[in-house]
Design a protein that fits this description.
The protein is mainly beta. It has one domain: Jelly Rolls (Sandwich). The protein is globular, with a radius of gyration of 14 Å. 3% of the residues lie in helices and 48% in strands. The longest helix is centred in the N-terminal third of the chain and has 4 residues. Strands 1, 2, 3, 4, 5, 6, 7 and 8 form an 8-stranded mixed beta sheet that branches.
Length: 117
C-alpha cells in the first residue's frame, strides 16, 4: 500500500530532523513531498519490511540517499544494496525498482532542469 502525505512543504528557516518527519506504517510505503517546484522536487519515503514499489522509469536523474535502515534497489536489472548514509544517482530513463528486505527511509531528489543541453 502506498500512502502519500503531500499536505504542505516543510517550514522554511526551521531546522528539521529529517529522519523523524516521516514514520513507518505497517504494510505500507509512505511518501511525503517536502519541496516541490517545476524544476524538481525532494521527497521522503519510508518502506515497511517486505514492501516495494513497482518498477518504473523517470525522464530525469534522481538522487537517492538512505537516511535509515538498508535498501535494495534494482536499476536496469542490476541489484544494489544501500545502507544508512549511502546515496546514488538513478540515471534518467533507467528502469528501477525498490524493495525493503528490512525497514528503510530515503530522500529522493529529482532535478528537472539542465536537460536542455
Amino acid at each position: 500500500m502506498l500512502l502519500n502525505y503531500n499536505s504542505k512543504e516543510l517550514e522554511k528557516l526551521k531546522p528539521q530532523v529529517i529522519v523523524q518527519i516521516i514514520q513507518y506504517v505497517p504494510n505500507a510505503v509512505v511518501s511525503k513531498t517536502i519541496l516541490k517546484r517545476i524544476t524538481g522536487n525532494v521527497t521522503l519515503s519510508s518502506f515497511d519490511e517486505g514492501e516495494e514499489l513497482p518498477e518504473k522509469l523517470s525522464p530525469f536523474d534522481t538522487f537517492i540517499q538512505i537516511i535509515d535502515g538498508k535498501a535494495e534497489i534494482t536499476i536496469d536489472n542490476k541489484l544494489f544494496s544501500l545502507k544508512l548514509g549511502e546515496g546514488m544517482i538513478i540515471p534518467s530513463h533507467a528502469l528501477h525498482h525498490f524493495h525493503a528486505n528490512e525497514q528503510f527511509k530515503m530522500i529522493a531528489t529529482v532535478i528537472k532542469s539542465g536537460y536542455e543541453d
